[in-house]
Amino acid sequence: MKRFLIVLSAVIMILGTVGMANAVLIGGSSWSYDFDSTAFVDSVIDSSGGWYWSGGTEAGLLNGNVNDGGIALYDGDYMSFAFIDNSVYNGAGADLAIFEAGFPAEDFIVSVSFLTNNTGWTSPIQYSTVYTGGSASGYNLNVVALDLSDFGIGSNMAISAVRIDGITHPTLGGTDLVAIGGMNISPVPEPATLILLGSGLAGLAFFRKKMKK
Ligand SMILES: [Ca+2]
Ligand SMILES: [Ca+2]
Ligand SMILES: [Ca+2]
User: Fold this and answer.
1) Centroid of ligand 2 to alpha carbon of 208 (angstroms)
2) What CATH code is assigned to 24-189?
3) Distance 173 CA to ligand 3 centre (A)
């Protein structure tokens, strides 16, 4: 019985690890959200044009730090991102947050896809950002928290890619992209976690069998 309890607690510990992650709070006085540390886009699958400002880099666009610069996207410029260690599903309310920097808060165009191979994009939708009350590299931090229902994505269906097209402002630059994070996310467990979980459960079954003898 004691060994059974040890194995059982090991399994519970492993299960706990699957759901555990560091939180990343982004926003300000009028809008903020506590993101899972895996919630952000994980790779760039396609891009055209744009220029990095305030030390912005491609890697910086993939993390939850809104204070490490960004990229300016004008008419015709775009970036497409894939979610690798998470997907974003259509749950209650807003599902996906896209952050933009500067004043005035600027617009951009969004498409999403179930696929990560740069195909299957939905029809694009133009969104207007709102000021969060927070800052990004010294500029205003703006956000669009969008609902996947806008794209006709069914309830609980998950997307794995997002494309953002910039829009040139009539007088003041263009879209200044800083971060993209899922608000309703499904974790995609790492293979190592699955193996641990699998062996834990197998061990549990083994001891249960032994106990019955
Ligand atoms: Ca991620
Ligand atoms: Ca960043
Ligand atoms: Ca939703």
Assistant:
1) 48
2) 2.60.120
3) 31
Which of these ranges, 6-10, 64-68, 100-104, has the smallest mean pLDDT?
6-10
pTM: 0.81
Q: Quick one: average pLDDT of 28-42?
A: 97
Distance 57 CA to ligand 2 centre (A): 8
Q: Which ligand is nearest to the CA of 38?
A: 1
Q: Which of 73, 43, 96 is nearest to 178 (CA)?
A: 73
Q: Where exactly are the structural domains of the chain? A: 24-189
How does pLDDT run across 125-180, given as a tens digit for each residue?
999 999 999 999 999 999 999 999 999 999 999 999 999 999 999 888 899 999 99
Distance 100 CA to ligand 1 centre (A): 18
Among all bound ligands, the one having the nearest atom to the CA of 40 is 1
Contact in structure between 32 and 25 (CB atoms under 8 Å):
yes
C-alpha 159 to ligand 2 mean position (Å): 21
192 has pLDDT over 80: no
Query: Which residues contact residue 32 at a Cβ distance below 8 angstroms, ignoring those fewer than 6 apart?
Result: 25, 26, 132, 134
For ligand 1, the distance from its centroid to the CA atom of residue 38, given in whole angstroms, is 4
CB-count burial class (<10 Å; 0-12, 13-18, 19+) for 138: exposed
